[in-house]
Amino acid sequence: xxxxxxxxxxxxxxxxxxxxxxxxxxxxxxLAAAPAFPDKPIRIVVPFSPGGGxxxxxxxxxxxxxxxxxQAVVVDxxxxxxxxxxxxxxxxxxxxxxxxxxxxxxxxxxxxxxxxLPYATDRAFAPVMLVGRSPNVLVVRADSPYKTVQDVIxxxxxxxxxxxxxxxxPGTSAHLAGELFKSLAKVDLNHIPYKGAGPAITDLxxxxxxxxxxxxxxxxxxxxxxxLRALGVTSAQRSASPDLAKVPTIAESGVPGYVAExxxxxxxxxxxxxxxxxxxxxxxxxxxGSDAFRKRAAAEGLIVSPGTPDDLARxxxxxxxxxxxxxxxxxxxxx
Length: 335
Prior knowledge:
It is a single chain. The termini are far apart. By secondary structure, this protein is an alpha/beta fold. The N terminus is likely disordered. Strands 1, 2, 3, 4, 5, 6, 7, 8, 9 and 10 form a 10-stranded mixed beta sheet that branches. It is globular. It has 11 helices and 10 strands. Strand 5, helix 6 and strand 6 form a beta-alpha-beta unit.
């Protein structure tokens, strides 16, 4: 005959065994129930209007990434506020990998230009991948007397403040490229800001301004047609683009240390799980290696630079530090 305390002990052991089995199987059951990422379309926010270089690059990325991820990757254009409106939308989105932003030069410069951003740039985003870098191009109209970078420097020193350069607006890559040139070449140029690249280039062609540090994508057709002439590229190395391969860098043209690049990088909201970031990074790497994307990149003068999320974080931090000094030294404000 079994004693009562032995029967109770047996029931307790059986119950513990049952809970142990259930406990061991629960994580596996939960894991099996969790949908694999991604299980719905992904959105890339472009903080610019449709049709520009950032929009075209994002759309090319979206198509190629979608093929690898097995889900549509759609572009959502949210222009305004010097990229702040679209970028803020992503900062406030769920950190689940389904919302990304195609960040640009402005992402690294806005913290210096905008004292009251609605997000903390260094804490609101998780880096995914640096897509690529591209030079701006110092251009003049075809009948300009300036044939080289040194011609521009000589004229600016002979006529301080009288040689003018256009930009698509204060704080843009064209503006800050010009300010860096002024600082390193020790010249005084007159900055003329416009509301967009189109009007700036129109006045450059019309002779109202002397030169522009334009993006390669904005002036590519005009260089090809001979309406504009390229004097130098702003990157550290000469451009890989066939149209610009023979154009010297501004640094090798007598302004040592000069580098001013446009760039594209994918960010997700901060807090996005590491496995999701890794999956997005893998898809982005594969996308930039596709033939279709490389053709688009070549047309934009883009140097494809795939790497790790940490690579993007380091690159953007370096850009923030470098351009904050330029903004401070030149006393640039957006007011």
